[in-house]
């Protein structure tokens, strides 16, 4: 692995004092020096290593620390398509990326920057913004790892949409160019201007609205009004019922199982921990948010199955009420296991993986959830586990890329590239990275070649999982 000394250090690792005083010219030279050591064309030449681990073996390795009854659901969701497999295969891809030379220009990586880990959500100031929205794998590492994962996901999504190869090629090139151009723009900004940068959804639906297929209902102000209703009140209406004057989660197994129906110990733990033993979580909140949290009381909990790659990690939802039953708050309590990046890019500064997720998210997102925090739980069947908490529903929405026409899909992918560049500019040396990327298309073309090759490799890996399920090596539960 090639490492290049540069001015920004390793995000979330070097915390012993102020950064060294260097000029912008010196930072740019660091980027150019990295480019000489690891040319941009390097990223075009991906080939599976001779000792490449079997991707199914890696997935089964991950499964050991997860809830065993949910693993077949994970495999069933991953086997649905090559893109679905890719979404759950962050670990195999991290192993592949680690087999390649890297730029040495480190940022706080998203760690799983595929197309569907970007979306819309509400800020504490009640603005709708577009940004990265998944940080389970966040950890310091070479900036290009996120870019390469995003680009490969674009090829797979484009193929799933039925887009022609020529369109896919131009779309990926344009998206990577958007990352490069955005980084060049951030390199010219003041530190505060970089930090304040965000993409307001009012601007998004204005620019994207005409690019949505008519039968999708339009991406417009009306649809945004619906998004603004997707809060804890709506979530409670859909997931709870009234029992003896108290709200309770309804059972919808295996996707949602009230704690009282799993084990008494889990039920007691969920209520007791969040209600009376939540001091670690409370301390992770700022004082004013801690005060707000203390105005709620916990009334119920449930296990909840979410996502594709996350399936099997412990995930609960906790129901709280404020002034009365018409004032619900639902928090998601999601397990944070070690990032798939850590074995390859080195461990970050945090031994508590819930804290790792929260701090990485706050570092790279323009704005984060009001109740974002972390805690530790001692589970009856699994010992100490790390978790992070956030609101289960708070104006969250995703753009259905399958309903976008070609122009709309390109706008969306370029927006993802902007959000990724912004995250990297906040957490790394945007001047050095921009100098490394340069003003030409060498990086763009290299990433395209990688993305096409890796998408083909994903087809092979997806078939490997299909075969493993057929042979009984892996279990799958479909359509759940």
UniProtKB/TrEMBL annotation:
Q: Which InterPro entries match?
A: DUF2252
Question: Where are the residues of the annotated region Disordered?
Answer: 1-23
Report any Pfam family annotated for this entry: DUF2252
Name by which UniProt lists this protein: Unannotated protein
| Organism per entry | freshwater metagenome
